[in-house]
Protein backbone atom coordinates (compact mmCIF):
# COMPACT_ATOMS: atom_id res chain seq x y z
CA UNK A 1 0.00 0.00 0.00
CA UNK A 2 1.40 3.38 -0.97
CA UNK A 3 2.06 5.76 1.88
CA UNK A 4 0.25 9.07 1.62
CA UNK A 5 1.80 12.40 2.56
CA UNK A 6 0.04 15.34 4.13
CA UNK A 7 -0.19 18.56 2.18
CA UNK A 8 -1.83 21.04 4.60
CA UNK A 9 -1.34 23.96 2.22
CA UNK A 10 -3.93 22.37 -0.11
CA UNK A 11 -6.51 21.30 2.49
CA UNK A 12 -8.84 24.27 2.16
CA UNK A 13 -8.90 24.13 -1.64
CA UNK A 14 -9.19 20.37 -1.89
CA UNK A 15 -11.29 19.33 1.11
CA UNK A 16 -13.16 22.28 2.65
CA UNK A 17 -16.32 21.85 0.56
CA UNK A 18 -16.46 18.10 1.09
CA UNK A 19 -15.88 18.41 4.84
CA UNK A 20 -18.40 21.24 5.12
CA UNK A 21 -21.09 19.18 3.34
CA UNK A 22 -20.30 16.22 5.56
CA UNK A 23 -20.52 18.35 8.72
CA UNK A 24 -23.67 20.24 7.75
CA UNK A 25 -25.43 16.96 7.02
CA UNK A 26 -24.60 15.85 10.58
CA UNK A 27 -25.33 19.04 12.53
CA UNK A 28 -27.88 20.81 10.27
CA UNK A 29 -26.38 24.22 10.99
CA UNK A 30 -24.05 25.93 8.50
CA UNK A 31 -22.24 28.07 11.10
CA UNK A 32 -21.56 25.11 13.38
CA UNK A 33 -20.45 23.08 10.35
CA UNK A 34 -17.97 25.82 9.37
CA UNK A 35 -16.60 25.88 12.91
CA UNK A 36 -16.24 22.10 12.95
CA UNK A 37 -14.34 22.11 9.63
CA UNK A 38 -12.04 24.83 10.94
CA UNK A 39 -11.46 22.83 14.14
CA UNK A 40 -10.75 19.78 11.98
CA UNK A 41 -8.05 21.63 10.06
CA UNK A 42 -6.48 22.89 13.29
CA UNK A 43 -6.58 19.42 14.84
CA UNK A 44 -5.06 17.99 11.65
CA UNK A 45 -2.20 20.46 11.81
CA UNK A 46 -1.66 19.76 15.51
CA UNK A 47 -1.60 16.01 15.02
CA UNK A 48 0.20 15.90 11.66
CA UNK A 49 3.19 14.27 13.36
CA UNK A 50 0.93 11.30 14.22
CA UNK A 51 -0.19 10.79 10.61
CA UNK A 52 1.21 7.44 9.42
CA UNK A 53 0.15 7.72 5.80
CA UNK A 54 -1.89 4.52 5.83
CA UNK A 55 -5.10 6.38 4.92
CA UNK A 56 -5.68 8.99 2.26
CA UNK A 57 -5.44 12.56 3.47
CA UNK A 58 -9.17 13.20 3.01
CA UNK A 59 -10.08 9.99 4.84
CA UNK A 60 -7.87 11.02 7.73
CA UNK A 61 -9.46 14.49 7.86
CA UNK A 62 -12.96 12.99 7.74
CA UNK A 63 -12.11 10.77 10.72
CA UNK A 64 -11.00 13.86 12.65
CA UNK A 65 -14.21 15.64 11.63
CA UNK A 66 -16.31 12.68 12.80
CA UNK A 67 -14.75 13.00 16.24
CA UNK A 68 -15.42 16.76 16.20
CA UNK A 69 -19.10 16.11 15.39
CA UNK A 70 -19.31 13.58 18.22
CA UNK A 71 -17.66 16.07 20.58
CA UNK A 72 -20.16 18.71 19.47
CA UNK A 73 -23.09 16.46 20.39
CA UNK A 74 -21.46 15.46 23.66
CA UNK A 75 -21.08 19.12 24.55
CA UNK A 76 -24.73 19.81 23.73
CA UNK A 77 -25.86 16.71 25.58
CA UNK A 78 -23.84 17.46 28.68
CA UNK A 79 -26.03 20.56 29.02
CA UNK A 80 -29.10 18.55 28.05
CA UNK A 81 -28.11 15.80 30.50
CA UNK A 82 -28.52 18.17 33.41
CA UNK A 83 -32.08 18.80 32.27
CA UNK A 84 -32.75 15.08 31.75
CA UNK A 85 -32.29 14.45 35.44
CA UNK A 86 -35.43 16.53 35.88
CA UNK A 87 -37.52 13.87 34.14
CA UNK A 88 -40.43 13.09 36.43
CA UNK A 89 -42.48 10.16 35.21
CA UNK A 90 -45.59 9.20 37.09
CA UNK A 91 -47.83 6.61 35.48
CA UNK A 92 -50.81 7.91 37.51
CA UNK A 93 -50.51 11.43 36.15
CA UNK A 94 -52.65 12.96 33.45
CA UNK A 95 -49.58 14.06 31.49
CA UNK A 96 -50.00 14.27 27.75
CA UNK A 97 -47.04 12.15 26.58
CA UNK A 98 -46.75 8.40 26.56
CA UNK A 99 -42.98 8.19 26.70
CA UNK A 100 -40.27 9.31 29.07
CA UNK A 101 -39.09 12.08 26.77
CA UNK A 102 -42.54 13.63 26.99
CA UNK A 103 -42.77 13.35 30.78
CA UNK A 104 -40.32 16.14 31.60
CA UNK A 105 -40.90 18.02 34.84
CA UNK A 106 -42.28 21.51 34.32
CA UNK A 107 -39.61 23.98 35.52
CA UNK A 108 -42.36 26.56 36.24
CA UNK A 109 -44.52 24.20 38.25
CA UNK A 110 -45.62 25.39 41.69
CA UNK A 111 -45.46 21.80 43.02
CA UNK A 112 -41.73 21.93 43.69
CA UNK A 113 -39.39 19.31 42.28
CA UNK A 114 -38.27 16.39 44.33
CA UNK A 115 -34.62 16.75 43.38
CA UNK A 116 -33.45 13.51 44.97
CA UNK A 117 -36.20 11.48 43.30
CA UNK A 118 -35.48 12.99 39.89
CA UNK A 119 -31.76 12.39 40.31
CA UNK A 120 -32.42 8.75 41.18
CA UNK A 121 -34.67 8.45 38.12
CA UNK A 122 -31.92 9.90 35.92
CA UNK A 123 -29.49 7.26 37.18
CA UNK A 124 -32.12 4.54 36.76
CA UNK A 125 -32.75 5.59 33.15
CA UNK A 126 -29.02 5.53 32.35
CA UNK A 127 -28.71 2.11 34.00
CA UNK A 128 -31.66 0.78 31.98
CA UNK A 129 -30.17 2.14 28.74
CA UNK A 130 -26.98 0.16 29.42
CA UNK A 131 -29.10 -3.02 29.62
CA UNK A 132 -30.48 -2.55 26.10
CA UNK A 133 -28.87 -4.39 23.17
CA UNK A 134 -25.94 -2.24 21.95
CA UNK A 135 -27.42 -1.18 18.62
CA UNK A 136 -30.81 -0.45 20.19
CA UNK A 137 -29.16 1.69 22.89
CA UNK A 138 -27.12 3.54 20.26
CA UNK A 139 -30.18 4.24 18.11
CA UNK A 140 -32.11 5.43 21.17
CA UNK A 141 -29.30 7.74 22.26
CA UNK A 142 -28.71 9.21 18.79
CA UNK A 143 -32.37 9.75 17.91
CA UNK A 144 -34.04 10.45 21.23
CA UNK A 145 -31.35 11.90 23.46
CA UNK A 146 -29.08 13.61 20.93
CA UNK A 147 -31.97 14.56 18.65
CA UNK A 148 -30.30 13.51 15.40
CA UNK A 149 -32.55 13.42 12.37
CA UNK A 150 -33.94 10.10 11.19
CA UNK A 151 -31.99 10.42 7.95
CA UNK A 152 -28.69 11.07 9.74
CA UNK A 153 -29.15 8.15 12.14
CA UNK A 154 -30.08 5.84 9.26
CA UNK A 155 -27.06 6.95 7.22
CA UNK A 156 -24.70 6.71 10.19
CA UNK A 157 -25.82 3.19 11.13
CA UNK A 158 -26.71 1.95 7.64
CA UNK A 159 -30.31 1.08 8.54
CA UNK A 160 -33.65 2.02 6.98
CA UNK A 161 -36.24 4.28 8.68
CA UNK A 162 -38.61 1.39 9.40
CA UNK A 163 -35.84 -0.49 11.19
CA UNK A 164 -34.95 2.66 13.14
CA UNK A 165 -38.51 3.16 14.40
CA UNK A 166 -38.85 -0.50 15.36
CA UNK A 167 -35.64 -0.21 17.40
CA UNK A 168 -36.83 3.05 19.01
CA UNK A 169 -40.16 1.46 19.93
CA UNK A 170 -38.48 -1.64 21.37
CA UNK A 171 -36.00 0.50 23.31
CA UNK A 172 -38.79 2.65 24.79
CA UNK A 173 -40.83 -0.40 25.72
CA UNK A 174 -37.80 -2.10 27.31
CA UNK A 175 -36.88 1.08 29.19
CA UNK A 176 -40.38 1.45 30.58
CA UNK A 177 -40.35 -2.20 31.68
CA UNK A 178 -36.92 -1.82 33.24
CA UNK A 179 -37.95 1.33 35.11
CA UNK A 180 -41.19 -0.23 36.31
CA UNK A 181 -39.23 -3.21 37.59
CA UNK A 182 -36.21 -1.44 39.05
CA UNK A 183 -37.19 2.06 40.01
CA UNK A 184 -40.75 2.10 41.37
Automatic annotation (TrEMBL):
Alphabetized InterPro entries for the sequence: RNA_pol_sigma-70-like, RNA_pol_sigma-70_dom, RNA_pol_sigma70_r2, RNA_pol_sigma70_r4_t2, RNA_pol_sigma_r2, RNA_pol_sigma_r3/r4-like, WH-like_DNA-bd_sf
Superkingdom of the source species: Bacteria
A Pfam family hit: Sigma70_r2
This protein's record includes keyword Transcription: yes
Domain RNA polymerase sigma-70 region, first and last residues per copy: 12-75
Signal peptide (residue range): none
Ranges where the RNA polymerase sigma factor 70 region 4 type domain occurs: 124-175
Keywords of the record: DNA-binding, Sigma factor, Transcription, Transcription regulation
NCBIfam families in the cross-refs: sigma70-ECF (TIGR02937)
Family under the similarity heading: Belongs to the sigma-70 factor family. ECF subfamily.
Protein name per Swiss-Prot or TrEMBL: Sigma-70 family RNA polymerase sigma factor
Taxonomic path: Bacteria, Pseudomonadati, Bacteroidota, Flavobacteriia, Flavobacteriales
